[in-house]
Amino acid sequence: VGPPPPPQPRAEGRPVVLPDGSYASQMAVEDGGAAEPGVPRLRGLLLGGDFFLATVVATALAKLALRSRAHLPPVAANMIGANVMLLLTGLLQLGKAGQSAQSIDADSQERISAYLQLLSNPCADVQQLLLVHCRQGFSAMLSEQRAAEAADKPAADAVPEVARQADDLINVRQLRGRAVETATLDLDDDDDIALGVATGAFPSELDFSARLKRVTQLTGLSDPVYAEAYVLVHSYDIMLDVLVINQTTAPMHNLCLELATVGDLKLCERPQSYTLQPGENKHIKANIKVSSTETGIVFGSIVYDAQGTSSSPPVPVVSTSGMAPPPERVCVVLHDIHIDIMDYIAPASCTDLAFRAMWAEFEWENKVAVNTDITDVKEFLKHVISSTNMRGLTPEAALDGDSGFLAANLYAKSIFGEDALVNVSVERRADGKLCGYIRIRSKTQGIALSLGDKITLKQKGPSSN
User: Fold this and answer.
1) Where is the Coatomer beta subunit appendage platform domain (predicted)?
2) Domain that holds residue 369
C-alpha cells in the first residue's frame, strides 16, 4: 500500500455582476495543500522573491541582536550577532544566486548591507539610532495618523444641527412668475439668506468685505445702464443678484437681462422684461446650475427700448404718416463673470496607499512649472496649500529641518465627488530662486486644467492674490 494521493484542488463558483450589468460565473480554485509540503511559510515567501519581507526580517534580527547586548554576556551577545550576520549574508546570496523567483532589488540589497555594517561595529551611537530613535520616529508617525483620523471622524457626542424643519416652506423662485414678484417675496429672499448664514450654509456672508469680493462690475460708469452682479455659490447652485440702474433721463422699456454660459453651467430660468424709470434701480436674480468642477464663464447683455439717444431726453418726432417712430433697441454688452473653481473644492484626506492608487489610475495630468518670487520651500508649500484650498498629506515631521528641496502631496475633493491630486516638487537653486514642478492629476480634464490655471495665477506670491 503506497502513500495516500495528494489532495486535489477544489473548484468553487459563484455568480458575479459584470460592469455592463450582465451576470457571469466566477470560478475559484482552492488548493488544499502547499506547493512543497514541509516548507515553512516564511521560507516559502523568501524563496518566492519577496525581498521587502527580507528587509523586515533583517531589521528585526539586527535590533534583537543589538538589544541582547544589554541582557547577555559579551561572548553570548557576539555569538548572536555573528549568527544574525550569517543569516543576512544568506539573504543577500539568495537574491544574487538566482534561486528565488526574482533577483533582489537595489534598495533591499542596500538596506541589508547597511545592517551588516552596523552589526560589525555595534557602537553606542548605532544602538541609540536603531533602538531609540527609530522607535520614537515610528511612534510619532502613529500619533500623527491617529490624530488625523480623529480629526476626520465626527465627534460621537456631537448633536446634529437642524438646517431646515420638516414643515418649513420650500421657496422655488422659478415657479413664482412675474405677477407674484413683490416686495414681500424679496424680504423672504433676504430671510432665506439670513437663515443660510445662521445654519452655516453661506459662511462669512455677514462680513461686508467678503461680500464686496464677490461683486463684479458688469458695465462702465458712463454707460446708459449701470449693472453689477453679486455672485453667491452654494453647492450645486450659483445665484446672481444683478443690480441694474437707469442712468439716463428717459425711461427704459422692455429691459431684459440676457445671459449665456460657457462650460458645465445651465441657466434655470428665462429672462423677464422690466421697465425702469429715470434713476430707478432694479435687482434681477438668476439661478445657474453647476454639473462639474470646471471654471465656467457667464456672459451676456442688457437690451431695452429707448426713444432717441440714451444720454438726452427724448424728443417727440412724428413721421409723415402721423405715427411715432418705433423705439430704438439698445444693447449694452456686459463684462464676463468668471466662476472660481475654489468655490467647489474642499480639503480632504486619504491614506498614502489610496493616493498612490489614484495617482496611477488617473489619466489627466497638468504639469505646471514653478515660477515664484518666494525663496523658502516651506513658505511656498504653505502658499500653494492656502491658494488651492487643499490639504497637505505629507506629515509635518517629514518637513522639519532646513533643506533646499521639498516634495509633498496635496489632496482635495470637490462637491461632485471628484478627486484632485497635487504633487509639489521644488528645489532652491544656488541663486536663491525656486525651481521645480507642480503636477496635478484628476479623473476629469476640467478640474486638472482649472486647478492648473489657478496655481499658475497664484504661485507668484501673496501679492498675486
Assistant:
1) 328-455
2) 343-464
Number of domains comprising the chain: 3
Instruction: Name residue 421's beta-bridge partners.
Output: 411, 441
Domain for residue 281, yes or no? yes
Give the three cell numbers for residue 417: 465627488
Residue holding cell 515631521? 397
Enter the pTM of the model: 0.56
Indicate if 349 and 449 belong to the same structural domain: yes
Of the candidates 139, 164, 131, 143, the residue with the CA atom closest to the CA atom of residue 63: 131
Residue 47 placed within a domain? yes
Mean pLDDT by 10 residues, the chain (465 residues): 52 55 54 59 82 89 88 89 90 78 82 88 82 84 79 66 78 59 42 44 52 83 90 78 90 88 78 88 86 77 74 48 67 85 80 87 88 86 87 78 84 85 90 89 84 83 56
Does residue 408 form part of some domain?
yes
Instruction: Based on the fold, state whether residues 388 and 295 are members of the same structural domain.
Output: no
User: Are 335 and 381 part of one and the same domain?
Assistant: no
CATH at residue 428: 3.30.310.10
